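Obj: model holo form, ligand = potassium ion.
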Amino acid sequence: MKKIFDEVRSLDKKAIENYFLSEDILMEHASIGIQKYITKKFKKNEKILIVSGTGNNGADGIALARLLHKKFDVSLYLTNEPKTEIGKLQLKRAKSINVNFVKDIFQADIIVDCIFGTGLNKELDKNSIDLIEKLNNFKSFKIACDIPSGLDILGRVTTIAFKANITITMGALKTALFSDVAKDYVGKIKVAKLGIEDEFFQSTLTNKYLLEKSDLVLPYRNIENSHKGTYGHLNVISGEKVGASIIASMAAFSFGTGLVTIISENQESIPHLIMQDKVISKNCTAIAIGMGLGKIDDSKLENILKLKLPKVLDADIFYNKLILEYLNEYVVLTPHPKEFISLLKLANITDISIEELQNNRFKYVKEFCNKYPDVVLLLKGSNVIIAQDDNIYINSFGNSSLSKGGSGDVLSGLIASLLAQGYKRVEGCISASLAHTLSALNYSKNNYSLTPDNLIEGIKNL
Ligand SMILES: NC(=O)C1=CN([C@@H]2O[C@H](COP(=O)(O)OP(=O)(O)OC[C@H]3O[C@@H](n4cnc5c(N)ncnc54)[C@H](O)[C@@H]3O)[C@@H](O)[C@H]2O)[C@@H](O)CC1
Ligand SMILES: [K+]
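Output (holo C-alpha cells):
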C-alpha cells in the first residue's frame, strides 16, 4: 500500500529545510515529471496546449512549456500574469527562449491543465468556469498538473472541474484525489518525484493508505491434511429476501469457506451447495447478517449480536438502533452511503444528507470511528473506505459495473468468508474488497452487463 496525505505543502516545506533544496528545485522536478510522461507517451510533432493560472500550479506549467519547447509543438496560454515570484521567474525563463504564447485556447492533441492546484481557495469565477468547460469539451488527451483544476483540497467540486485522463500529482498522493466525486475527474493517478527520496514520504506519518493489487491476500490452501472444518463455517442469517443471502453464501463458498449455512425460519429453496438450518451452527466461525433481512424480532437479533463470533453487519440492519450496543471488536459494518447516514443518525453523531456525506466521506468516517474505535467500517462507494480507529485504507479499483443490485451482497459474503477462515477483520476487508473490485476490473464484457454471478465467477480466476 502507498501512503496518502491530507496536504503536502508542509511536507514540501520540511523537505526544503531538511535537504537544503529550494522551491525552484522542487518545481523543476515537478515539471520534469510531466515532461517525462509526455515524452514517453507522445510523438514529437504532436500539438500540446498548456493552460496556466496565476499561482504556482501555473508556474509548473510555464516551466513545463520551457522543458518541452522545440521538442514538441507547444503553446502556452496564460489566464493572467503570474502572481508569485517563482511564477514571474518561470515566465522570464520561458520568454528568454521564445516559448510560443497563444491568446486563445484550441483543441490540441494534448492539453495540460495548470490553472489551479492545491491553492484553490474560493468558488470559481465565470471566466474560470467557461475556460474549464471549453477545455473539457475538447477531444484532446488531458493531463492535470497536481490536481484537476476545480477540485478542492477536500476533493469536492462546487461548479465544474477539469476532466483529466491522467493526473500527475506532485511529491505524494493527496487525499483529495480519492474522494468519490474525484473519481470522474482525476483519471489515472501518477506521482512525480520532487527530487526527494521516497523514503522521506514513506517515513512521514499518516493514517491513510491507498491499497495496491499486491495487498490482496487470497485464501490459498497450503495444508494438504485438511478437511472442510479447517476452512470455517459461515452462517448467513436470512430474512424476507432469501436471494440476498444466497448471493452472499455463494460468494463466501467460492472464496474458500469450508461450510456455508443459511439460517432461516422457513424452508427456503436454495442452491444445493449451501446448507440450511433454523438455528446457528455449533461449529459456526463467522456470521453475516442484514442482507435481505427485512424485519426481525429484537430478541432474536440480540441473541445473534451477542455471540462472540466475527460478524459482518449489512443493509437493513443499519436502520435498527439495537446494533449500537454491539459495535464491538467482533463487528464489521458494510454500509453504502444511504445506510451510513442512517447509522450516523442512530448513533447521534449527525443528521446529514447523502450529498453532505459524499462531499465529506473521510470526515464522517473519522467521526464514526472516533466514537466506535473497536468496529471495522467499510463504507461503500466508487472509492471504498475501510477504517478502524485512526486508520483508513482506500480501495480505488472499483468501477461503475459494480453499481448493481447484489454487488454488495457479494462483498459481504466475501468478507464473511475470510472472517470464517480466520482472517483478522481489517485484513479480511482489505482482501475481500480488492478481490471484489479486481474481479469487476477483469470482467471483459460490456460494463453494463456484470451480474453478481459474473463477479463470483471472476473471484475464482484472481
Ligand atoms: N509547495 C511547493 O513547494 C510546490 C508547489 N507546486 C505547485 O504549486 C501548486 C500550489 O500553488 P499555489 O499555492 O500558488 O496555488 P495554485 O497555483 O493552486 O493557485 C492559487 C492561485 O489562484 C488564486 N485562486 C485560488 N482560487 C481561485 C479561484 N476560485 N478563482 C480565481 N483565483 C483563485 C489564488 O489567489 C492564487 O493566486 C501545487 O498545486 C503545485 O502544482 C509544485 O511546483 C511543486 C512544489
Ligand atoms: K491543475
